[in-house]
Amino acid sequence: MLPFRPAPSWLADAVLYQIYPQSFADANGDGIGDFAGIAAHLDHLAWLGVDTVWINPCFASPMRDAGYDVSDYLTVAPRYGTDDDLADLVERARRHGIRVLLDLVAGHTAVEHPWFRAAADDPSDHRYVWADADPLPSGFVASPGTRPGGYLPNYFDFQPALNFGYARPDPAEPWRQPVDAEGPRANRRALRAIMDHWLTRGISGFRVDMASSLVKDDPGKKETARLWTELRGWLDEAHPDAVLLSEWGDPAVSVPAGFHGDFFLQFGGATDGGPLRSLWNTGTGTDRDEWDPVPCYFGAAGKGSFAGFAAAYAEATEAIGEPGHIALPTSNHDFSRLACAPRDAAQLPAAYAFQLTWPTLPAIHYGDEIGMRYVPGLPDVEGSVLTPRYNRAGSRTPMQWDDGPGAGFSTAPPERFYLPLDPDPARPSVAAQRRDPGSLLHTVRELIRLRRTTPDLGSGSPVRVHNDGYPLVYSRGEHHLVVVNPSDRTATAPLPDPAHARATRLIGEGVTVGPDGISAGPFGYAVLRH
User: Fold this and answer.
1) ω into residue 398 within 30 of 0, thus cis?
2) pLDDT, tens digit, for every residue of 395-453?
3) For 241-294, what is each residue's pLDDT tens digit?
């Protein structure tokens, strides 16, 4: 018997779409995107086939880390609008058949949060991990208030870690409180209250930031998993149709812990995000020195390997069983876009053919559906630059709606834009690609339509890989075959079954299937029914 209810049925068919609100659409002309801007473009998402959007943090914040430093969980950031504007967006999205998920920063706040201001002057406050010690333990930051000692940050120094306890307390280090101490219990209650506040206002769930970071010194994340299992039990009873998706990057651990789904990410798990990076990472966008410089599978040179991703997917699905899902993103606000040099627009249809027919939940980062590129060399905006080789701003540039001034993103002067537009004169736009039936946008839309109308291509149908080199060949369910060649040279593979020689192509180009086998031209792809 499962420790919690199965995921809501609507999630199994979801097509997720990530919106970075400050860069999506600006309705009031101040150069920063807002709720009204999102609402004005819901028709685009509905036309595309998206039914679930995840909005990056939109709560009140000093914005040193683009909203991942929350100063008030129960109020939206004024630059996006009002609480009523968010409510209006949620209702208008519902009328378009679209659910809205918010980003919940569960593990830390901003130093400006009233909780932290109180804790900085009150030695009896245990809301945060606080060491009243001199000298401070390694990694702690000196108190900004009258309280002696200092606090543990979760990432940047201005993001103090909320106290969910330590898996291994130590009486000699009293700041290492057990997970059942009053401070951790209060924070678990606060999480439930925050979630309940927004869920009762029509939100359909949350993507949880740094979900694995809550309990400290937690080998195997066992105590953190127990925390989320407890919260999931509450959610199942209080809001059974809501979902929790985690930024954990290790579905084999996070989904059994209570999340309805987790993403393969550029970090997480035993290989620090190896499965996702083995698919997409070109090494030229957001990249870290410690990452293995291995060629990605979706690279024109055809030197990557699909085996690592396939093994990680198999391991995760076996661990998960029935309760939840794995999500596969095209990119995200912290990781290079699909269109990141040297990968260009010609290579993207094959990538989408895979992403939208593999039995993971597809998650599209805003603008990836038209092939917006990762823009290098941008300034540090709200903490976007982490290292000289890891500038997240390149994946956060304004949405390119049309070819007019401001690309349809904003009527503000360009110097007031949250980030500069892609300066490439050939940059793609939604309007231009809507007019072109052969565009990437129409390809993505048709692949989404096929996924929705073909049970074999959904998340609940089995997958069987027949060729894991180039081209990639796999079956979905009983009657569908997918062929994807991300390389710039023709690749061949044997027929998995003689019946496939009579298959009908549903979508694709550059692929032939006959009695002698499969031939896939450069960047060719096909979805076939047999």
Assistant:
1) no
2) 999 999 999 999 999 999 999 999 999 999 999 999 999 999 999 999 999 999 999 99
3) 999 999 999 999 999 999 999 999 999 999 999 999 999 999 999 999 999 899
Hey, how many other C-beta atoms are within 10 angstroms of the C-beta on 104? 25
- Alpha helices of 68-181 — where are they, by DSSP H? 83-95, 114-119
Q: What is the distance between the alpha carbons of residues 321 and 315, in angstroms, rounded to a whole number?
A: 10
Name residue 147's amino acid. R
| Cα separation, 259 vs 276, whole angstroms | 19
The CB-based long-range contact list for 113-117 (8 Å cut-off, 24+ gap) reads: 113/70, 113/71, 113/72, 114/71, 114/72, 116/151, 116/160, 117/145
* Nearest Cα to Cα of residue 67 among 25, 20, 24, 114: 20
Q: What is the pLDDT of residue 202?
A: 97
Q: What is d(CA 433, CA 423) in angstroms, rounded to the nearest whole number?
A: 18
Virtual CA dihedral for 355, 475, 9, 99, nearest 10 degrees?
20
pTM for this model (two decimals): 0.97
Other beta carbons within 10 angstroms of residue 249's beta carbon come to 22
Pairing label, strands 504-514, 491-493: unpaired
Residue 35: closest CA among 99, 94, 78: 78
Query: Exposed/middle/buried for 211, CB within 10 Å: 0-12, 13-18, 19+?
Result: buried
Cis peptide before 522 (omega within 30 of 0): no
Token code pair at residue 118: 């109180």
- How far, CA to CA in Å, does 23 sit from each of 29, 152, 471? 12, 31, 36
Whole-number pLDDT of residue 2: 59
